[in-house]
Design brief:
This protein is of the alpha+beta class and 400 residues long. Helices cover 52% and strands 12% of the residues. The chain has twelve helices and twelve strands. This is PDZ domain-containing protein.
Length: 400
């Protein structure tokens, strides 16, 4: 090589055309062996620095690939999750993480979250360039994977600074090859991130549909319960009216029409109980169809087993009359939340036992709508008033 000089990490040669490819390779190996060793030391130093998150917890498993100064983004790790999202820029300010306000003291803990690779975190960010707010979804990545991408990027940048600027026979240069490698690596990261985003969007759509269906089922069951117990209340009122009618008219002309009306009401209540049981089965089937692997965990906003106050209020609004037994509804509602409805009492101490066996509606209607006369709660209502010894006790037989 006739006259050559080294300046800013690159060769300038006046007779590059006279050099063979082999001589250039030998020159590169000899000249830049020391630079390669320095690069190795630099990479080792980078690997021993703090984690990409400011003030991290001990040994975090995940990383977003961000350098933070308080709440302001000061650097984005090439190949990391934040880099792959293409939504964050340097000097952006993080305002909240997953709906929780971020502060310089808690931002690191909020960003790590569940610390599970593949989980998602939502950031509310204010851009310094336009002062606009935006919501950014980023998928957490394994911290070791982020460090490896960072090391690859640092190595390629060091090689780009130190390789000689010459052209091969096909016209390519080492710098062009390095740039092409960086482009391929980044495209792979972008593609992986986009595929994960599509999967998340599909799961969110499915979760929203299941939540809406469950809400509709809970509301329908609540309305059915209101109608069910409303019929119960009206049946008790009709029973009182029939009792009064028999008291007035039985001596002159016994009439069995009232008993037929009560039997018709019993049949109607049995049909209502059967339809309510079918709605419950549909609700449980829809609830069991949720896939726990998608981490959806939907919680319907309608009526549910923990909303005692809202549940009771809805049912009581559908009722009319002071004869409705609210304590009976409380117990019936509680048993419904456990998967059953009140059936026959086990003994006199437990008048409203819980039961969840199918096919109990007829007994429920017969025993619950018209409890036996020996029940201490309803004995007074069904006890016939004193009458002449020669008058048959039809009302007592009807109540049984």
């Amino acid at each position: 090589m006739s006259t050559s000089s080294v300046h800013s990490g690159s060769f300038r040669s006046e007779s590059d055309d006279s050099l063979s490819s082999s001589s250039l390779s030998n020159t590169y190996v000899a000249k830049y062996a020391s630079e390669a060793r320095l690069a190795t030391e630099r990479i080792r130093k980078i690997s021993s620095e703090e984690n990409v998150l400011s003030d991290p917890r001990p040994s975090p498993r995940t990383s977003l690939g961000l350098h933070l100064n308080g709440l302001v983004v000061r650097g984005i790790v090439p190949g990391g999750p934040a880099f792959a999202s293409k939504r964050l820029c340097v000097n952006d300010e993080i305002l909240s993480v997953d709906g929780k306000d971020a502060t310089p003291h808690n931002v690191t803990k909020l960003l790590q979250g569940c610390d599970k690779p593949g989980s998602w975190v939502q950031l509310r960010v204010r851009s310094q360039s336009s002062a606009n707010f935006q919501e950014v979804d980023i998928m957490r990545a394994d911290a070791d994977e982020v460090r490896m991408y960072r090391t690859i990027f640092e190595n390629l940048m060091l090689l780009k600074e130190g390789v000689p600027n010459y052209s091969a026979k096909d016209g390519t240069t080492p710098i062009a090859l390095i740039d092409n490698t960086l482009t391929v690596m980044n495209n792979l990261r972008f593609r992986h991130y986009e595929e994960a985003s599509h999967v998340k969007h599909a799961n969110d759509m499915k979760s929203d549909g299941i939540k809406a269906s469950l809400d509709e089922i809970y509301i329908a069951v609540g309305k059915m319960e209101g109608a069910y117990y409303g019929v119960h209340s009206r049946a008790k009122k009709l029973l009182v009216e029939v009792q009064k009618l028999h008291k007035e008219n039985f001596k002159s002309s016994p009439d069995l029409q009232g008993i037929e009306d009560l039997n018709a009401l019993r049949s109607l209540c049995a049909a209502q109980a059967k339809e309510l049981e079918q709605l419950k089965s549909s609700m449980l089937t829809a609830q069991s169809s949720i896939n726990p692997a998608t981490d959806m965990n939907p919680v319907p906003s309608g009526l549910r087993s923990g909303d005692d106050h809202l549940h009771k209020e809805l049912l009581r609004k559908s009722l009319d009359g002071p004869l409705f037994d609210h304590d009976y509804v409380d117990r019936g509602m509680y048993s419904l939340s456990l998967g059953g409805l009140p059936k026959q009492p086990r003994d006199k101490g437990d008048l409203w036992g819980l039961h969840d066996e199918p096919g109990f509606a007829p007994n429920l209607v017969q025993d619950r709508f018209f409890p036996p006369a020996q029940s201490p709660r309803t004995a007074r209502m069904f006890e016939p008033e004193p009458r002449a010894p020669h008058v048959p006790n039809i009302l007592g037989e009807m109540a049984m």
